[in-house]
Amino acid sequence: MAELRKRFPDANLFGIGGDRMQAAGLELIEHSRRMSFMGFAEVVRHLPFIFNVRRRVLDQIRKRNPELVILIDYPGFHLSLLRKLSRLPGVEKRKVLYYIAPQVWAWRPGRAKTLAKLTDHIAVIFPFEVEVFARYNARATFVGHPLLDEIAPAVPRGQFLKGLGLEPDDRVVGLFPGSRKQEIRRHLPVLLETVKLLRRFQPELKFILAEAPGVPTRLYDKLMRGSAGIVRAFGVSHAILAHANASIVKSGSATVEAAYFGNPFVVFYKTSPLSYAIGRRMVNVPFIAMPNLLTGERAVPELIQSEVTCENLVGALVPLLTVPQEIEACRARLRKVRESLGHGGAAKRVVDICEQLLTGENKNAD
Known about the structure:
By secondary structure, this protein is α/β, with parallel strands linked by helices. Helices cover 48% and strands 15% of the residues. The strands form 3 sheets. Strands 9-8-7-10-11-12 form a 6-stranded parallel β-sheet, sandwiched between helices. Strands 3-4-5-6 form a 4-stranded parallel β-sheet, sandwiched between helices. 33% of the residues are buried.
């Protein structure tokens, strides 16, 4: 949004977004927090609301007739929107850019054909995705990972820990249960049990829980009642990942952030039994964690569904805290992940593509 405003200061920008996009000048049709659903069962329950949002978005596109539509991530909604969009008047003149493409290499490869047919350009954040989409004659550009522009230099470890009431030489474990309420309800209890078990073996360990934006404090209060000695921190997840000795991280974009900082971590994920049963039949990749997919090996341990027990989490984490060879080997694998993310400037490269689509001039976005 900020880069678009620099390049096109008079543009009329409207769509779906959050507080930060609204502050940057987006006229909201719907707030993204109301569309934060995870899992097949959860999506099905909210279909009437989702269809209503899609209808309102299409109505606004029909009325305003934008020159460019930018679809960002969220493939379940956006691919459905894209098909409807292709049947609206003015499709010949309207350009479509898809930014952060669906993971067609993991499941539902037919989506690549849809994107090739209905978009003008795809901006991808992992280098291997260019070749994947090229197989379907789609024009794709690797723009780098936006994470690289979001991470600020971390404050010194001692200063950070002191600000949380800890000591500079404390051995710290970061806890990342997720960013959505339903994830936290499902994941936080098992993390709290894991903390209890870890303390039996290593009572000197300290724990920092990363609280997510948009999640009510009272949810953490309720779930953590009776769990003393865990530091709760809001808005400092990157600093936790930078300075923790090791972390336990819910599968998702946070695993790429964790890999960037290079400290060992364990990936885990649980969803509803129905969502897991459906997903297991549809997904065709050897790993769920992006660092493992990027390296083609088990760069970090990962535990899924029934494997997510406090005993298994402790068994995976302890070597990353206590065995020097395991720690260094994990850090070496994570350095490979960081190298694969490209360089900063993803937003600028995406807007270069936008300008090219709008003007027909090639800004050498590739």
